[in-house]
Design brief:
The complex is a heterodimer of chains A (about 280) and B (about 120). Chain A is α/β, with parallel strands linked by helices and about 280 residues long. Chain A contains nine helices and ten strands. In chain A, helix 3 crosses helix 5 and helix 5 crosses helix 9. Chain B has about 120 residues and is mostly helical. Chain B has a domain of about 80 residues: Orthogonal Bundle (Protocatechuate 4,5-dioxygenase, Chain A), CATH 1.10.700.10. Chain B has nine helices and no strands. Classes of the chains: A alpha/beta (about 280), B mainly alpha (about 120). At the A-B interface, helix 8 of A face helix 2, helix 7 and helix 8 of B.
């Protein structure tokens, strides 16, 4: 059986990737943000995973409104970074964990999920940025990926409970996989931000800080919250945080919060990270 | 869900918005392709016409009226691609929607220190 060696949560703000592209890492705006991720990067170097499951949403780059899958799972051999309008980014393509991804699809459908299954598809900053934050800028990524897209753009978005349920199936898929791969799960998005409407620029630092502890030590209230609650507390785009629940539900009830970092604002977002390990 | 009506100043991209904004978002989505970015730069109005935008929608796009584009159903993730062709910091787009001066927006909403 494959082994879950950690659950990570992180923001995936596109400006983070742009800051790295422009060499702004050590500028006053960005240095405190990136410095806080060094512990996460070190954890990843030590953990030596084989597969990264990345739960994220597309941002109008890969999926248009002509077809909006509530959940999509990648089974591709390669995922190229998509052109988001600024031209292609100079980061390596991502190699897919093909067989394991199909196994996850099998498990999902067995458990009454109905994902879109994607054989040929590109990935946007929702996947790119978390990988850069934890793996830096290698010549080739040291892991294969299993991408899971969650619709957080067009309502109705899935409920927090449904994301949680998917995390349970993800765990089952990992534990029933015959290989001995070491798997990390990245729940991405958030934290509080709102890009649209007169409340644009809304950041809720208190709610963000509570989230980073709560997702580790007391996630039940977040699972029970409505989508409206998420929007109200974390902003319209902050509702992306429901994707962390997929990661959290795949972990043990008891986890150790190994690393935590918060910085606001990163661009227009309260940005944060956690590294969780299953408690013995 | 009907949260759009319940959280002040927070438009959710629901069915009505998706239908209303379909053309404007489709036009913006296409800017992910270099050839379309070139067409937009060469003759913006002709490019917008090729996606069937209404006069109202064209006016919002050509005036870079971000508040109005969102009101017309534009979703920020799509219309952001306009800011890739015609560079505009996202914080300025945010400030425009909040009807605030940029410096005030950075300070009051995002909590950044004021310059000087």
């Amino acid at each position: 059986m494959a082994k879950i060696i950690g659950g990570l949560g992180t923001s995936h703000v596109p400006s983070i990737g742009a800051a790295l592209d422009k060499g702004l890492r050590d500028t006053p705006d960005w240095k405190p943000f990136f410095d806080g991720y060094e512990a996460g990067k070190q954890w990843m170097r030590d953990a030596k995973p084989d597969i990264a499951v990345v739960v994220f949403n597309d941002h109008g780059n890969t999926f248009f409104l002509d077809r909006v899958p509530t959940f999509a799972v990648g089974v591709a051999e390669t995922y190229n970074p998509v052109d988001e309008g600024w031209g292609p980014r100079a980061i390596p393509a991502f190699e897919g964990a093909v067989d394991f991804s199909w196994h996850f699809v099998d498990k999902l459908v067995d458990r009454h999920f109905d994902p879109m299954v994607c054989r040929e598809i590109e990935v946007d900053h929702g996947l790119q940025v978390p990988m850069e934050l934890f793996f830096g800028r290698p010549d080739a990524w040291p892991v294969k990926v299993l991408p899971i897209w969650v619709n957080t753009i067009q309502y109705p978005i899935p409920t927090p409970q449904r994301c949680w349920d998917m995390g349970k199936v993800l765990r089952e898929a990992i534990e029933s996989w015959p290989g001995d791969e070491r798997v990390v799960i990245l729940g991405t998005g958030g934290l509080s931000h709102q890009l649209q409407g007169a409340r644009a620029g809304f950041i809720n630092q208190a709610a963000d800080r509570a989230w980073l502890d709560g997702i580790a030590n007391n996630p039940e209230p977040y699972r029970a919250m409505s989508r409206e609650d998420y929007v109200e507390q974390f902003g319209s785009e902050g509702a992306e945080l429901i994707m962390w629940l997929v990661m959290r539900a795949a972990m043990n009830s008891d986890v150790n919060l190994v690393h935590k970092h918060y910085h606001a604002p990163a661009s227009m977002t309260g940005a944060g990270m956690v590294v969780l390990e299953n408690a013995a | 869900m009907s949260a759009a009506a319940t959280i002040p100043d927070t438009p959710l991209f629901d069915r009505a918005g998706s239908i209303r904004g379909y053309r404007i978002n489709k036009m913006a989505m296409a800017l992910g392709q270099p050839a379309n970015r070139a067409a937009f730069k060469a003759d913006e109005e002709a490019y917008l016409d090729s996606f069937g935008l209404s006069a109202e929608e064209k006016s919002a796009v050509m005036g870079r009226d971000w508040h109005e584009m969102v009101r017309l159903g534009g979703n920020l993730f799509f219309i952001l691609k306009i800011s890739a062709v015609d560079p505009t910091p996202i914080t300025r787009i945010g400030a425009a929607q909040a009807s605030m001066e940029h410096e005030d927006f950075l300070h009051l909403r995002l909590g950044k220190k004021r310059n000087g």
